[in-house]
Amino acid sequence: MSRGAADGGRPGVDSVRAGYVEHGVRGYYARHGDDYRNPHEDAIGEAIALADGRRPLPAGRVLDLACGSGEATLALATLDGERIFVGCDPYTGDAWRARVPHPLLELDFTAIAAGALQPHGPFDLIVCSFALHLAERSRLPGLLWALSRVGAELLVLSPHKRPAIDVGFEQIDAFVHRRVRVRRFVAR
Ligand SMILES: C[S@@+](CC[C@H](N)C(=O)[O-])C[C@H]1O[C@@H](n2cnc3c(N)ncnc32)[C@H](O)[C@@H]1O
User: Fold this and answer.
1) Which ligand 1 atom is the nearest neighbour of the CA of 67?
2) How far apart are CA 27 and CA 30, in angstroms?
3) CATH of domain 41-187
């Protein structure tokens, strides 16, 4: 697999896509998760700051769902407000711990859809950056419903319009910044 020279030898966007094709999403992150960094981290940080500027994001307990190496958490930590962060990702533990001093739940979307987050909630905000589109489409309604039972708000950042979020949440804001699509929801 080719490596992204501009990113210190880490996989670039094209090689990540090729990795998904070669190994499947799960197989790709099982192999590369501990080395994960998002090449769009600057844009993600700016987009989160813009979302907060449009309407302050909730303080309190924050779950960073499919947290990678903490891209969204590190951006949220720069904003005003007292926040307690919890990461959640089954594959990127070493990458998270290398940059973020907060606890990690190693749960995947299937376990969350089955209610595994329930004992860890409630959360004032769930943020999911560049990951919700990776959930299997058939699992998405159950996953969204389970998230809406433990999170008061959901902030989704993604490189495109997927996935549609039509269970458990109502959209309250949406915009695009540097090709990062930001959507904000409240639990119904
Ligand atoms: C493109 S990365 C995004 C990471 C980080 N949130 C960011 O903004 O850079 C996708 C993340 O989804 C996680 N992931 C992949 N499949 C998953 C699954 N089935 N359940 C939970 N997380 C999963 C990966 O481990 C990875 O951290």
Assistant:
1) 6
2) 5
3) 3.40.50.150
